[in-house]
């Protein structure tokens, strides 16, 4: 099994056709088919099956697809890092979750760039769970994500702390809504929430003895706000993100348990390079 075979395999898995895959790869069909058969022979499994819709993955093929993507991604990341070091540049692979990408800690990043202009950033955006997995597998050097998250296996430097707010669309009588509301009042509305906050929100509502009406769960702050703008419900988002979007009305939520923080994370006990140490220290100094 080699990288070329894995790349061919992934393209065929995406196209569901040998013909389409060969065109995309700009190679003839016979050598492509040969490489796939060779891959199956080396692994001693069947990776594809023919159906009325084209070529589909077997269970073994689905498993290989998952790991093949990780292998290709790690290979590309390694090549980029080595190439940049050889060019007298340094690279930091930085993960950013979907809740944080819209509002990065600018002062820390800008100050670090002034101190170390030769450093380049390879930024990867994903949901917090996948970002954490990549940190643990050392596919990323550092990441900036938002609480809540499971910190097992991580070293964490917490950054800014902020309130959650409720974003109300025009369909509600916003003139009658106070600037700050509590959880019991919030439970009267249909709510649009982040999936990662679901457990925290539900436990808080239970403590208050009320049942929430969570009509939409999503991964992205902007998506939650967009749904709210349609009148589908009330979006619960961090305050800083709410003000980035053009919203009709924002009410602060009086609930200390729902305060959220951005955090800089890396693998537990990982031996940081001098440049990564400097990056972490810069965040600590500017976060006081």
From TrEMBL:
Protein known as: LysR family transcriptional regulator
Residue ranges of domain HTH lysR-type in the record: 1-58
Gene Ontology molecular function: any one: DNA-binding transcription factor activity
Family statement: Belongs to the LysR transcriptional regulatory family.
PANTHER family for the chain: HTH-TYPE TRANSCRIPTIONAL REGULATOR, HTH-TYPE TRANSCRIPTIONAL REGULATOR GLTR
Keywords: DNA-binding, Transcription, Transcription regulation
CDD domains: PBP2_LTTR_substrate
Native source species: Ligilactobacillus ubinensis
């Amino acid at each position: 099994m080699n990288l070329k075979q894995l790349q061919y395999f992934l393209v065929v898995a995406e196209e569901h056709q040998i013909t389409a895959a060969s065109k995309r790869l700009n190679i003839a069909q016979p050598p492509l088919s040969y490489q796939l058969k060779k891959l199956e022979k080396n692994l001693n499994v069947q990776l594809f099956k023919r159906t009325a819709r084209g070529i589909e993955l077997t269970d073994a093929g689905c498993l290989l697809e998952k790991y093949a993507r990780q292998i290709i991604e790690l290979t590309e990341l390694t090549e980029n890092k080595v190439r940049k070091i050889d060019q007298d540049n340094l690279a930091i692979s930085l993960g950013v979750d979907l809740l944080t990408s819209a509002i990065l800690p600018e002062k820390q990043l800008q100050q670090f760039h002034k101190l170390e202009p030769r450093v380049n950033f390879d930024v990867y955006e994903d949901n917090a769970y996948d970002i954490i997995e990549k940190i643990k597998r050392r596919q990323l050097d550092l990441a900036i994500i938002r609480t809540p998250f499971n910190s097992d296996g991580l070293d964490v430097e917490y950054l800014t702390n902020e309130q959650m707010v409720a974003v109300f669309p025009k369909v509600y009588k916003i003139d009658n809504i106070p600037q700050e509301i509590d959880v019991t009042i919030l439970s009267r509305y249909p709510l649009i929430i982040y999936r990662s906050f679901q457990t925290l929100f539900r436990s808080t509502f239970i403590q208050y003895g009320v049942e929430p009406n969570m009509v939409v769960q999503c991964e992205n702050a902007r998506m939650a706000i967009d749904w709210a703008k349609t009148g589908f419900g009330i979006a619960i988002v961090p305050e800083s993100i709410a003000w980035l979007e053009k919203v009709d009305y924002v009410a602060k939520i009086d609930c200390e348990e729902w305060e959220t923080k951005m955090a800089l994370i890396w693998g537990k006990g990982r031996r940081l390079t001098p440049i990564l140490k400097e990056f972490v220290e810069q965040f600590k100094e500017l976060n006081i």
